[in-house]
């Protein structure tokens, strides 16, 4: 296995793309997959992800096949992966040990690797190399403000662009594209999402209650999307707050009511999305619906999609998401030319 440095691939290569099955991580893989399609015209481009997103991954037109490698246990996954022919190029977007160990298995002896990878003998990691792209992969501070100064081939600090540039792509970065189904029901005027993968991403319940009442008083309906409470507790924080929000405020509980492609459709049909930094934010940014997103300071540079329909709200240096006031969110909504008041 070799480190990919922008050359050496056969014509129409077989490519594997590894992406986590957290919703946001999977959404970020869509620009990367589009770039690989356009840049390399692969004979095969397979997506290796997990069971949480398989229903939407299997409908992505850029993947020939979506193969689950998260959620079924290592022995079953190893059998599934070893049954496939080696790939000419493996692009891994994840730094977890499991993803890194899959790279040499998928690449075989002669394949190339982009991103974190165990080396061929399993005793360490494959070096990133000393090219500018390799140094970017090795950089541990992707959220810093001066990242683009140190790597002038970046036009943004967004993670999708970082991965695309490290695949040696110098063209424009495609937007998120995700399969979209009709939600098969009426959608509230405003959709919110109040759960996230980490406690430091959460916004206090009393703030959500205040905001929802302001929206309702303006004559708009509000719906809450996300995973079913019991399912969501395995991966996300904030489920108890969401249940109280439904019980104490005029919020329609839509958690678990849609397939993932229908979630995208619902987000496309609503008038506004207000959400934490989570998968719903990234799904919403694949639509044209205005999105107000609450981010941790610094993290917004890496994870906020550079799209015109996203308004980022972050607390500033040394602040936390819980410090963001309802007034700041409400003013941002109104300044975003969303007529709620």
Describe what you observe in this structure.
It is a single chain. The protein is of the alpha/beta class and 341 residues long. The protein folds into two domains: 2-166, 3-Layer(aba) Sandwich (Rossmann fold); 190-335, Glycogen Phosphorylase B (Rossmann fold, 3-Layer(aba) Sandwich), CATH 3.40.50.2000. It contains 14 helices and twelve strands. The chain has helices at 23-40, 54-57, 74-82, 97-107, 132-138, 147-150, 159-166, 205-217, 229-232, 239-248, 260-269, 279-284, 299-303, 326-335, and strands at residues 2-3, 14-18, 44-50, 65-70, 89-92, 112-114, 190-193, 222-224, 252-253, 272-276, 291-294, 310-313. The strands form two sheets. Strands 1-6-5-2-3-4 form a six-stranded parallel β-sheet, with helices on both faces. The protein has a six-stranded parallel β-sheet with strand order 9-8-7-10-11-12. Strand 11, helix 13 (299-303) and strand 12 (310-313) form a beta-alpha-beta unit. The longest helix has 18 residues, at 23-40. The chain starts with a strand and ends in a 6-residue tail after the last helix.
Determine and state the CATH class of the largest domain.
Alpha Beta
Low-confidence stretches: none
Q: Kindly state the mean pLDDT as a whole number?
A: 94
Instruction: Give the CATH architecture of the largest domain.
Output: 3-Layer(aba) Sandwich
Strand element count: 12
Outline: globular
Summarize the amount of helix as a percent range: 25-40%
Order of strands across the biggest sheet? 1-6-5-2-3-4
Task: Determine the N-to-C terminus distance.
Answer: 59 Å
What structural category do the secondary elements indicate? alpha/beta
Strand composition percent: 5-15%
Total of DSSP H or I helical runs spanning 4+ residues: 14
How many strands, which pairing sense, and closed or not: the largest β-sheet?
Answer: 6 strands, parallel
Looking at the structure, the CATH topology of the largest domain is Rossmann fold
CATH superfamily heading of the largest domain:
NAD(P)-binding Rossmann-like Domain
Radius of gyration: 21 Å
Q: Can you write the helix and strand succession as a string?
A: EEHEHEHEHEHHHEHEHHEHEHEHEH
Our count of domains comes out at 2
């Amino acid at each position: 296995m070799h480190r990919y440095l922008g050359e050496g691939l056969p014509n129409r290569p077989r490519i594997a793309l590894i992406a986590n099955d957290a919703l946001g991580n999977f959404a970020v893989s869509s620009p990367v997959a589009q770039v690989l399609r356009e840049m390399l015209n692969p004979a095969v481009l397979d997506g290796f992800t997990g069971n949480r997103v398989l229903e939407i991954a299997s409908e992505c037109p850029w993947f020939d096949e979506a193969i689950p490698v998260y959620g079924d246990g290592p022995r079953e996954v190893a059998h599934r992966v070893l049954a496939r022919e080696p790939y000419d190029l493996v692009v891994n977007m994840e730094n977890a040990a499991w993803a890194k160990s899959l790279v040499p298995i998928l690449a075989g002896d002669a394949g190339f690797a982009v991103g974190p990878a165990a080396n061929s003998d399993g005793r360490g990691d494959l070096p990133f190399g000393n090219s500018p792209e390799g140094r970017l992969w090795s950089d541990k501070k992707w959220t810093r403000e001066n990242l683009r100064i140190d790597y002038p081939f970046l036009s943004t600090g967004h993670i999708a662009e970082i991965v695309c540039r490290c695949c040696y792509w110098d063209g424009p970065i495609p937007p998120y594209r995700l399969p979209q189904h009709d939600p098969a029901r009426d959608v509230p005027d405003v959709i919110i999402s109040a759960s996230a993968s980490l406690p430091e991403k959460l916004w206090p319940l009393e703030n959500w209650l205040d905001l929802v009442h302001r929206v309702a008083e303006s004559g708009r309906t509000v719906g809450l999307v996300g995973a079913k409470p019991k399912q969501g507790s395995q991966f996300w924080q904030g489920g108890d707050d969401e249940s109280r929000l439904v019980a104490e405020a005029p919020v329609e509980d839509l958690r678990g009511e849609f397939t993932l492609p229908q979630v995208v459709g619902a987000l496309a049909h609503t008038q506004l999305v207000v959400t934490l930094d989570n998968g719903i934010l990234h799904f919403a940014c694949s639509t044209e619906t205005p999105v107000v997103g609450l981010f941790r300071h610094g993290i917004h540079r890496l994870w906020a999609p550079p799209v015109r329909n996203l308004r980022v709200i972050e607390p500033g240096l040394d602040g936390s998401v819980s410090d963001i006031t309802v007034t700041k969110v409400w003013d941002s909504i109104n300044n975003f030319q969303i007529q709620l008041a």
